[in-house]
């Protein structure tokens, strides 16, 4: 444990700064990967919708809006655009006649698969250049970060009130 209180207070700030810089670099790398996948461009907001639908197949618009932190009209427009691209399909809910469920289409799933493969390949180039101990430290740090996000409730999760629901 660090005996210097100022140093221990500075550590989270330094870690947050390093994480922010890494995220910015990854965003550049991700955009490059997105451009390589398809001639069908999707915005960052639309991509977040695709990720949510991949994680929570059959989610409704209201719940999706809560997960994204967006107003219902905005979420509806995002889904309209994704439906027009052939990435999303709205289907009647078997639980409620008044609700529609959102599902990824085969084309939407293929887009995400290709995008993830491109991004993973770009990451592997960098990770392969790291020492085994650095890779292990990265894996441990990323796992701990994800656990902390989940523990803090920072990652919105879908209600499990519907039969057969997968949680995030």
From TrEMBL:
<dbReference type="InterPro" id="IPR036390">
    <property type="entry name" value="WH_DNA-bd_sf"/>
</dbReference>
<feature type="domain" description="HTH marR-type">
    <location>
        <begin position="15"/>
        <end position="147"/>
    </location>
</feature>
<keyword id="KW-0805">Transcription regulation</keyword>
<dbReference type="InterPro" id="IPR023187">
    <property type="entry name" value="Tscrpt_reg_MarR-type_CS"/>
</dbReference>
<keyword id="KW-0804">Transcription</keyword>
<dbReference type="InterPro" id="IPR036388">
    <property type="entry name" value="WH-like_DNA-bd_sf"/>
</dbReference>
<dbReference type="InterPro" id="IPR039422">
    <property type="entry name" value="MarR/SlyA-like"/>
</dbReference>
<dbReference type="Pfam" id="PF01047">
    <property type="entry name" value="MarR"/>
</dbReference>
<dbReference type="InterPro" id="IPR000835">
    <property type="entry name" value="HTH_MarR-typ"/>
</dbReference>
<keyword id="KW-0238">DNA-binding</keyword>
<protein>
    <submittedName>
        <fullName>MarR family transcriptional regulator</fullName>
    </submittedName>
</protein>
């Amino acid at each position: 444990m660090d005996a210097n209180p100022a140093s221990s207070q500075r550590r989270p700030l330094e870690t947050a700064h390093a994480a922010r810089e890494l995220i910015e670099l990854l965003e550049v790398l991700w955009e490059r990967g997105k451009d390589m996948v398809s001639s069908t461009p999707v915005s960052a907001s639309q991509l977040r919708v695709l990720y949510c639908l991949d994680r929570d197949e059959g989610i409704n618009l209201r719940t999706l809006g809560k997960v994204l932190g967006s107003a219902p009209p905005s979420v509806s427009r995002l889904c309209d655009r994704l439906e027009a691209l052939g990435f999303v399909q709205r289907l009647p809910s078997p639980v409620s006649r008044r609700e529609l469920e959102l599902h990824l289409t085969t084309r939407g799933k293929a887009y995400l698969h290709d995008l993830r493969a491109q991004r993973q390949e770009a990451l592997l180039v960098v990770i392969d250049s790291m020492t085994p101990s650095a890779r292990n430290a990265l894996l441990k740090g990323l796992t701990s970060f994800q656990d902390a996000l989940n523990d803090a409730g920072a990652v919105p999760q879908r209600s499990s009130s519907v039969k057969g629901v997968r949680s995030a």
